[in-house]
Amino acid sequence: MKWFKFLTLVILTFMLLTGPVWAQEAKEQEEQSSKSTSEVVLTEEDFQKHNCDNVGDALQTLSGVSVNSSGEISLRDVSASKVVVIMDGQRLNTPGSVGVNVASLPITNIEKIELLRGGRSAQYGADAVGGVILITTKTETESIKPMNYGFQVSYGSYNRQTYNINHSYSKKRLNTFVSLQRDLWDGDFPYTDYYGNEKILKNNEQSSYNIFAKAGYRLAEGKNLSLSTNWYNADNGTPGMIDNPTPNARLRYDNKSYNLTYDQSVLFRDFNLKAQGYFLDYETKFDDPDALGGGTHSDHDNYALGLELQQGGTIGKFLNVSYGYSYRNDRIESTDVGEKTRNTHSAHTSFTGILPLGGFISQLESSIALRYDATSDFENALSPRLSLSAVHQGALNLSLVSHIAKSYKAPSFNDLYWPRDA
């Protein structure tokens, strides 16, 4: 850890020496700083340009990103279990599953998607080894029309059908957004088996419903309360492998989430406050009546209760700082691993400074982030991250970014309690 202590000392010295300059430019550079942290940002303009139906479609427009048939994302060959997906501040990953089905999230509900590559455990905790996907849902703003309606239909190959209807309302202190999406797909595409015979893939159909609702209320100037819920229900066929088909197997999902968030832009001086609570209820069922040795039935219920507290602002009017605490209770009731529980307490902090320059290098930025996760069923973890970046702005924008980070993957319930797979 000598390298870590040395680099920490160097960056802290850099921050202190350039502090007065940061004070003058802090507010002007705040938006630019946030953009430099996010390697890629996708907005509604990008979604429309690429004709995206869901979050998975949008992410697949980026280089080095792939989404498999289950909707799980991998970054630069890093598996889905090492990519964290966060929507409106709530972590969608659970210890009882491999990854997050981003294809189940309709794009009509989404305002923007941010992709952070590389190890991010210092900011986002366990499993952020390959990167982090930050998803922000829509919040209706007051417009000329207090009520707005939308309807969208799309049709694709192999009878893929998508129907979406949404409604938004905004007047005075209240705003709401509601969306209903129906997806259908036959998935009966042709293939050639190992013996050169052309066949049609059977039992590959998909059918799902997705309902999303969000309401916001402005309590006072700079004080906002929001409540959102999402329900996803799917009944899909699972065709199996070419040499081992499963013509009658079914995979069913029944996922529900609830989120309550309080935002206060100014709590004291330049410090804000964000408090959040959320609950996830994910159920997955798999049935294969033709399995060897008798029919197979698997039922996995994943539950997660999360609490988040976060503040950010300036110290001494020259150092940007953020810190927070989070608690997460994960529980699974499964026919394969039984009933298991995990409790995680986390504390995190980060310090960021920006030095504007007038020469070829327009801006220097340094950042230190540190997170400590204390869990109930495996070893605690300390995750540091040091970042330095140099930016040139002109006819051709250039940036040079360097990171040193320590990240980790938490063992899933399957890793810990199902030795046959571990």
Description:
A hairpin with a 7-residue loop joins strand 18 and strand 19. With 422 residues, the protein is mainly β. It has one domain: Maltoporin, Chain A (Beta Barrel). The chain is built from six helices and 24 strands. It is globular and about 70 Å long. The strands form five sheets. The chain has a 13-stranded antiparallel beta sheet. Strands 1-6-7-4-5 form a five-stranded mixed beta sheet.
Q: Globular, elongated, flat, extended or rod-shaped: what is the shape?
A: globular
Terminal CA distance: 30 Å
Count helical runs: 6
Binned, the helix content reads: 10-25%
What CATH first level would be assigned? Mainly Beta
Summarize the structure.
The chain is mainly beta and 422 residues long.
Layout of strands and helices, then pairs:
Elements lengths: L1 H16 L1 H19 L2 E4 H6 L5 H5 L5 E3 L5 E3 L7 E5 L2 E2 L18 E8 L3 H4 L6 E7 L9 E10 L3 E12 L2 E12 L4 E3 L5 E3 L5 E15 L2 E15 L2 E2 L2 E2 L4 E19 L2 E18 L7 E20 L3 E16 L3 E19 L6 E13 L5 E12 L5 E8 L7 H5 L5
Parallel strand pairs: 4-7
Antiparallel strand pairs: 1-6, 2-3, 4-5, 6-7, 8-9, 9-10, 10-13, 11-12, 13-14, 14-17, 15-16, 17-18, 18-19, 19-20, 20-21, 21-22, 22-23, 23-24
